[in-house]
Amino acid sequence: MTEYTRQNVSSGSAWEPVVGYSRAVKAGAFVFVAGTTASSPEGAVGGADAAAQAREIFVRIGAALEQAGASFDEVVRTRVYLKDIANFDTVGAVHGEIFGSIRPALVAVEVGALAAPDLLVEIELDAIIGAALPAA
């Protein structure tokens, strides 16, 4: 049986201990980043702009990946949850800014609601440390 060293990565959110989750979990070379939104005590960072919310989400996800010793280059799968599928093109463009040459597996789905009414998008992803594409 393979054993993996586990590292929980916290964002410092007050919800993590209440709900019982981590922003990310590293197990061996695998990194799993939890569903991440642009929430803040003052409301969604980016307001009613789904692309701006996605950019903030990727800032937060990038920090979690870094804490786990990974990078966007090692992401192999992303999942995008949209409150309105009409935002797919704008959020997809932000996804493409980061992953255009990496091209992880992707699913994008419309959901009935997210954790707060002003949240328009939530993103989660998986990475494998060492899975980065070789330099061209």
Summarize the structure.
With 136 residues, the chain is an alpha+beta fold. The protein has helices at 15-20, 50-67, 88-99, and strands spanning 6-9, 24-27, 30-36, 75-82, 105-110, 121-128.
The CATH superfamily title: RutC-like
Spatially, the strands of the biggest sheet line up as: 1-2-3-6-4-5
CATH class: Alpha Beta
Number of strands: 6
Assign the CATH architecture. Answer: 2-Layer Sandwich
- The CA-CA distance between the termini, in Å, is 36 Å
Kindly report the oligomeric state of this protein: single chain
Order of helices and strands: EHEEHEHEE
Helicity level: 25-40%
Label the structural class: alpha+beta
Total number of domains: 1
Largest sheet: 6 strands, mixed
Number of helices: 3
Strand content: 25-35%
According to CATH, the fold-level topology is 60s Ribosomal Protein L30, Chain: A
Mean pLDDT: 95
InterPro entries: RutC-like_sf (IPR035959), YjgF/YER057c/UK114 (IPR006175)
Pfam family, one: Ribonuc_L-PSP
Protein name: Endoribonuclease L-PSP
Structure description:
This protein has 136 residues and is α+β, with helices and mostly antiparallel strands. It has one domain (6-128): 60s Ribosomal Protein L30, Chain: A. The chain is 26% helix and 27% strand. The protein contains three helices and six strands, in the order βαββαβαββ. It has helices at 15-20, 50-67, 88-99, and strands at residues 6-9, 24-27, 30-36, 75-82, 105-110, 121-128. Strand 2 (24-27) and strand 3 (30-36) form a beta hairpin.
